[in-house]
Design brief:
Blueprint: E1 2-4, E2 7-9, E3 14-15, E4 18-25, E5 33-40, E6 49-50, E7 55-56, H1 58-61, E8 65-70, E9 75-82, E10 85-90, E11 102-107
Parallel strand pairs: 3-11
Antiparallel strand pairs: 1-2, 4-9, 5-8, 5-10, 6-7, 10-11
The structure holds copper (II) ion.
The site of copper (II) ion has 5 residues, from loops.
Length: 108
């Protein structure tokens, strides 16, 4: 997986249920990003958002795990156990989710 400025690119759009490892790489030259994993009720669901903070309400969204704040060029990994369903990967640095820094993945 790679993160570009205000976008997340996945190497696969679906994975098998069970142990899943996400390798996150911040491709940005000058912006800190992170990658948070949360379940989605449906592929087009919108996450609960805290307008004041400009961030997703992680507790309300259902926080599964994250690769916390990556400096530009830095990489990190997260291994989680996922059941079948739709999940969202998003960046919760203020403003980034609303700028489109998220993508979804299907777990089969
Ligand atoms: Cu970001």
């Amino acid at each position: 997986m790679a993160t570009a400025n205000m976008g997340i690119t996945l190497s696969a759009k679906s994975v098998n249920a069970g142990k899943v490892t996400f390798e996150a790489n911040n491709d940005s030259k000058d912006v800190v990003h992170e990658m948070v994993v949360a379940p989605l009720a449906s592929p087009d669901a919108i996450l609960p958002f805290n307008e004041g903070e400009g961030k997703v309400d992680e507790d309300a969204a259902g926080h599964i795990g994250e690769v916390a704040e990556l400096e530009p060029g830095q990489s990190g990994a997260l291994t989680v156990n996922l059941k079948p369903g739709t999940y969202i990967l998003y960046c919760n640095i203020p403003g980034h989710y609303m700028a489109g820094m998220w993508t979804t993945i299907e777990v089969k």
